[in-house]
Each structure stands twice: as structure tokens, then as C-alpha cells.
Amino acid sequence: MLKKLRTIFLITGLFIVIFSVSASADYAQIPVSIGQTKITGYLVEEKTMVPLVAFTQAMDKTSYVSSSSGDVVTIKTRGITVSASDKGYYVEANGRCFYTDVYCRYINGALYVPIRAVARAYDAKVLWNDASRSVVIEDKGGVCAAADEVYWDGAVLWLSRIIYAESRGEPLLGKIAVGNVVMNRVDSALFPNTIYGVIFDRKYGVQFTPIATGTIYNNSNAECIRAAKMVLEGTTVNDGVLYFLNPKIATNSWIQKNRTFAFAIGNHWFYY
Questions:
Q1: Residue 43 — left, alpha, or beta (φ > 0 → left; ψ -120 to 50 → alpha)?
Q2: How many alpha carbons fall within 13 Å on the CB side of residue 205?
Q3: Which has the closest alpha carbon to 24: 7, 6, 49, 4?
Q4: How many CA atoms lie within 13 A of 149 on its CB side?
Q5: Are 72 and 82 in contact (CB under 8 A)?
Q6: Domains contained in the chain, CATH given
Q7: What is the pTM of this model?
Q8: Is residue 167 within 8 Å of residue 223, measured between CB atoms?
Q9: What is the per-residue pLDDT across 111-141, written as a single tens digit (0 to 9) for each?
């Protein structure tokens, strides 16, 4: 029996080694310099990705993993918390949330994240050298401003609630696009100039069904809160869309008859 177990462990270990090598072999290596420290990044879907733990420790030697629960790795560094999740499209830092374009993933047993997103946690510059295909981090020893310094009062609360009420079952980009509609209206002369004003606008009748049904007052979930923060950070699917609907359940065809179709994400159609 013992011999069998040893054989199983040997085969399992060999499989892990082969998988790790093949995982990294799929990506081009990108040297990353942080002061005198060098780490290896990989080019994934045209994005340079770095190991989260190694990068934070190179930025701050006192950095440490405070928790690694499920898919989420959380690190304490320079007095703030930085976290990312396997298959997640974000890096969270100091209460803020930065969209990553490509999802974070494990490579060779380490969680890799897009370098530009994690560098924002330190308010550091990412300098790409096209000739050498390498990266230098320009670090001044800081951290990003805290969420309460960046997001104005009530912004995350109401934006995340409308995203949750309208699109909690939609993919992340669909949630972001709903948030974009609200922010695009804030910027438009046709609508009120605050998030709260846009959501509760009744100039031409109730603009969003959750206002009429009362579901706008339901608490949001973690992903919708992250989507709201990403939108407030400037993440956008489209700067011009002002309307959206679910054609399967819409009871009013005014948008379809009077506005220009832009694109569809999940169950929602978006219009200019």
C-alpha cells in the first residue's frame, strides 16, 4: 500500500512539474526591474503580468501575505492592503479597485497580475523599453490615494446599487457598461449632473425600473461594488451610451425606435 501511495505521489508531482513548465512556456518572459531587484514577468494577451507576492515584496521588503483564502490573495504593504483573485479582473488597493483588462491567473504556482494595475497601488510609473522588451518601475515610495479621497460621498453606494438592481446576473463588462450609462448621463447636458440625480431622475418619468419597484434600496454585492469603483476609476466600455434595455422583458419600445443601437452585452442592449 505504501509503495502504491509513493507511486501516486511521484506521478502527481511529475504532473505538477510538467504542467508548471508548460504553463510558463506559453508566454514570453519580460524582465522587470524594481530598483536593484529583478523579477520575471510574462507577456499574456499583450499585457505584462508579474507575480503579485514577489512584486509587492520587491516594492516593500516588509510586505507579507495576510491571508490567502480560496482564490483571493491579500497582502499588507506600506500600510495598505492589496489583493487580487484568481480569474478576477481587478486589483484592489487602499479601498480602490483597478480593472485589469485580462484576468489574473496562477502561473508556476504563483498568482500573476497585470503590472500596470498593481503598480497603481504604489502610485508608481511603469516604463516599457520596446528595444529590450523589458520594464522598469519608477517608484517614489508612495501608495495610491485612499478610496474616500477619490470617490465622493454616496458615489459607490448608489452606483453599485443601480448596477446590482439592473445587472447583477450580467458579466462584469455588462455591469461596467450599466455604470457607464449612468456616468455618461452625468456628463451629458440632457440629464442631471450627479449620480444620485441621474438615478432618481423623473423629468420624463422614471428612468430606471428599480426606482419604481424599490429594488434600488437593496444592498449591493461585492462584484457590483467593484464594478462601480472601476467605473469611477475611469474604466469604460463606451463613452457615449446613454440608454440600455433587456429586449426580452422591455415593456416600452421608445429606446429602440428613437435611439441608435451601439452593442449588446449579455441580456442588455445599449444605445447612444
A1: beta
A2: 3
A3: 49
A4: 5
A5: no
A6: 27-147 (3.30.457.10), 151-271 (1.10.10.2520)
A7: 0.88
A8: no
A9: 999 999 999 999 999 999 999 999 999 999 9
Length of the chain: 272
3-state secondary structure string across 76-112: EECCEEEEEECCCCEEEECCEEEECCCCCEEECCEEE
Q: What grid cell was written down for 223?
A: 462584484
DSSP state of 207: S
- Burial class from Cβ neighbours inside 10 Å (0-12, 13-18, 19+) for residue 122 reads buried
Q: For residue 139, what is the DSSP state?
A: -
CA-CA distances (angstroms) from residue 60 to 34, 136, 178?
A: 10, 16, 37
What gap in Å lies between CA 86 and CA 131, rounded to an integer? 31
Of 191, 165, 192, 196, give the one whose Cα is nearest residue 178.
165
- Residue 243 grid cell: 440608454
Q: Are 270 and 243 in contact (CB under 8 A)?
A: yes
> b/e string for 235-255 if b means 16 or more Cβ within 10 A?
bbbeeebbbbbeeeeeeeeeb
Q: What is the mean pLDDT of residues 37-48?
A: 97
How confident is the model at residue 12, as a pLDDT? Answer: 40
- CA proximity to 54, closest of 79, 73, 29, 26: 73
